[in-house]
Amino acid sequence: MADSKDKFLGKILDNRYEILEVIGTGGMAVVYKALCHRLNRHVAVKMLKEDLALDADFRRRFQTESKAVAMLSHPNIVSVYDVSRSRDLEYIVMELIEGITLKQYMQKKGALTWKEALHFSTQIAKALSHAHSRGIIHRDIKPHNIMIVKDGSIKVADFGIARLPTSQHTVAQEALGSVHYISPEQAKGEAVDMRSDIYSAGVVMYEMLTGQLPFDGDTAVSVAIQHISSVPVLPREIDPEIPEGFEIITMNAMNPNLETRYPSADVLLEDLEEFRKNQNAQASSSNTAPFVPVTTGENSLAELRGRGQYIIEENVLPVSTSGELKRESYERRRIRANKVSLLSGISCVLIFILALSIFLWNFWLKWLFQESEPVNIPNFIGSNVSDLMGDKEYEKIFSFTVVTQVDPTHKMGTVISQRPEAGRTQMLGPDGIGVVLTIASGEITVTMPDVVNWEYNRAVAELEQLGFVVERETVASSSITKDYIVETIPAADEKLPGGSTVYISVSGGPKIVPVIMPNLVGMTQAAAIAHIESLRLVVGTISPVESMQKEGTIIWQSITADEEITEHTKIFLQVAVKPRETATPEPSESPSPTPGTPTPETSTPTQAPTTPVETQPPITPEPVPVTPEPTLEPPPPPPPEEENGNGEE
Fold first, then answer.
1. Model confidence band, residue 404 (pLDDT cutoffs 50, 70, 90)
2. Mapping DSSP to helix (H, G, I), strand (E, B) and coil, where does residue 122 land?
3. Other CB atoms within 10 Å distance of the CB of residue 616
4. Is 425 exposed, middle or buried (0-12, 13-18, 19+ CB in 10 A)?
5. Torsion angle of alpha carbons 249, 253, 256, 262, nearest 10°?
């Protein structure tokens, strides 16, 4: 999948993440496989696409995802290690998952066994339970966003349209996930809550059990309408081997009525666990009572089963005492649902026409029927919001709405974005022109956690997830286990600005192992890294430097060869890159010595021209005439190199 023309391939972001290859592309972002040089591990870097990075709305959505995923830490959710934001680049550094998506797995295998489906469903419910407990709604649960790891566990990924309950959002932000998995309230454009994720999880469970989607159609609109008003074929009609209890759980998770759907992921998880225990008990004893789901309200599944009924939609569908559905009743229900679908489709078309008419009136037609004047929107970015709000002239024209955003790079109260953008022209109406101003709310402060006596990698992951930059030193300790944290500066519970540097002392055991620094100059970059790591040293920043030496070889190291150092010391390197080609200067009218003719150091210098001409360093190491005028030389890279073949400095 790698794109050989991708300009980020081979680049090192923030002197840390070396981009290796493209591993995925989505609607908003590109995902790369990268090598973290600081911790020497492979990671996934999710980068907002360049064309979208210019759009303030998409940048805000991407930043919302960053905030959302940074709050989550669970075995069934892809871990986030780092978040970076600059003027023209936004990316998230995540755990690299070696595996395939649940969708790919189902495409290869078809319908899963109910035991496999139960195994995956339970882990999905656990992931949702954790996210919902942090106030995060995923809003795009589907098999494409669920990764299967080699050990058989799953991890929920891609919080691309996740929403914090307090975050502001517009119609543009309410982009739907895959239409085959959206909840009815999403399809209707209504507000969503955590139960929407449960509906989508129910659709995934349905697909795992049956090998097919509950609803399909030629267009996205037709599928969305079916979610609102149609009744899916019951899983046991497709495969009678599916346990009835699992079918009931799936259909209750997919209930289009919010009031009778599972109220939380915890209740769904409780039913799945109870069903698993019941199936295990039935396998060992034939006298075990049948599975009864957890009560979810007045019309609980337990009560309905006791009366010979269970929920499918807003109403209930009769079943016989043996648990078999009454075919006639279900067919009547399906026919009625098809009629409702047709009426719903007509209603949706009428609503769309009405919405389009309102839009055209507000943004175009209305101005044709009233006297107004065009106003060019000024650039408010960089201004202080209090100055704008107190300006009498602006008050006559604009109606400001202020939204705050945490941004430590700007002074509190500074406008960092605006909508509409500067330069656009709008007609001034009786109510003025509405402008949304996003202002910086000041610097983030983060509490330093207590990581003393934590294992090094675990401590670094925790600190970096909080936004800290970690610097390490190794110390001897007879009381702290080797590779565990001895001390941190600053200490635990101190308040620090986001992005601060934290210094950690790591135990090297009772006696620190000395290492003799090798000579890396002349090695290739890959060989130098391997040699450093084999000595339990740490690779620091590797900086490219233009040099006449062989491209890709090390030309400088931060610690001199043969010096005694300790394990885990960070080594910084410089690697040679080909010098940039420069234009050849125009020849002067005065004669010049023939190139390649040696000029003795004792020879008489030639007359300098009236106007000195600055020249680039010679491309070949051949001697040049020496003049009394000082020659302009490029600043030497840090280490000095011999540029001339005749040994002149």
1. low
2. helix
3. 15
4. exposed
5. 100
Residues 531, 516 contacting (CB under 8 angstroms): no
Q: Which residues of 531-567 are buried (b: 16+ CB within 10 A; e: fewer)?
A: bbeebebbbbbbeebebbbeeebbbbbebeeeeebbb
**For the ranges 5-9, 171-175, 204-208, which has the lowest average pLDDT?**
171-175
CA angle 75, 149, 133 (to 5 degrees): 25
Long-range residue pairs from 82-90, CB within 8 A, at least 24 positions apart, any chain: 82/464, 82/465, 83/467, 84/13, 84/14, 88/53, 89/13, 89/47, 89/48, 89/53, 90/47, 90/48, 90/53, 90/59, 90/62, 90/63, 90/66
- β-pairing, 538-546 vs 570-577, is parallel
- C-alpha distances in angstroms, 212 versus 108, 219, 414? 13, 17, 52
Distance of CA 138 to CAs 66, 145, 161, 193, 224, Å?
A: 13, 10, 7, 10, 19
Average pLDDT of the residues in 292-318: 39
Question: Rounded to an integer, what distance in angstroms lies between the CA atom of residue 464 and that of residue 603?
Answer: 63
Residue 140 among the catalytic residues: yes
E-strand ranges in 304-397 read 309-311, 316-318, 373-376
Burial class of residue 327 (count of CB atoms within 10 Å of its CB; 0-12, 13-18, 19+): exposed
Residue-wise pLDDT for 142-151, tens only, equals 999 899 988 8
- The C-alpha atoms of residue 35 and residue 17 are separated, in whole angstroms, by 6
Q: How would you class 415 by CB atoms within 10 Å of its CB: exposed for 0-12, middle for 13-18, buried for 19 or more?
A: buried
Tell me if 276 sits within 8 A of 289, measured CB to CB. no
pTM of structure: 0.47
Distance between CA 114 and CA 535 in Å, rounded? 50
Q: Which long-range contacts (CB under 8 A, 24 or more apart) does 195-198 make?
A: 195/258, 195/261, 195/262, 195/263, 195/264, 196/137, 196/139, 197/128, 197/131, 197/132, 197/137, 197/138, 197/139, 197/141, 197/265, 198/128, 198/253, 198/261, 198/262, 198/264, 198/265, 198/268
**Among residues 82, 140, 158, 271, which one is catalytic?**
140
User: Can you read off the two tokens belonging to residue 219?
Assistant: 């267009």
Question: CB atoms < 10 A from the CB of 328, how many?
Answer: 9
Q: Side chain identity at 609, as an amino acid letter?
A: P
pLDDT at 577 over 70: yes
The DSSP line for 464-501 is HHTT-EEEEEEE--SSS-TTBEEEEESPTT-EEETT-E
Three-state DSSP class for 648?
coil
The number of beta carbons lying within 10 Å of the beta carbon of residue 460 is 22
72 neighbors 134 (Cβ within 8 angstroms): yes
Mean pLDDT of 576-583: 75
d(CA 222, CA 242): 28
What is residue 504's DSSP assignment?
E
CA distance between the termini of the chain? 49
Query: What is the DSSP code string of 433-469?
Result: EEEEEEEE----EEEPP--TTSBHHHHHHHHHHTT-E
- Angle 109-120-203 (CA atoms, 0-180°, nearest 5)? 80
* Domains along the chain with CATH numbers: 12-95 (3.30.200.20), 99-339 (1.10.510.10), 373-440 (3.30.10.20), 445-507 (3.30.10.20), 514-577 (3.30.10.20)
